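Translate sequence into structure tokens.
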Amino acid sequence: MEVELKTKFPKVDTKLISSGGGVFEVTLDGELIYSKKALDRFPEEGEIETLIKDYSN
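Result follows.
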């Protein structure tokens, strides 16, 4: 997913941070925009891209 995001959003700084316990979170400009832990599910296809686009507008 990191490579896909870098390709679609070259100006967005993406990095994969390894952790345990199934945590998957996405932050943008220091704001949490997606949390697998809070939603109890992995993002659907295209969901992260939509969140980034919505945040940027």
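Note: The chain is about 35% helix and 15% strand.
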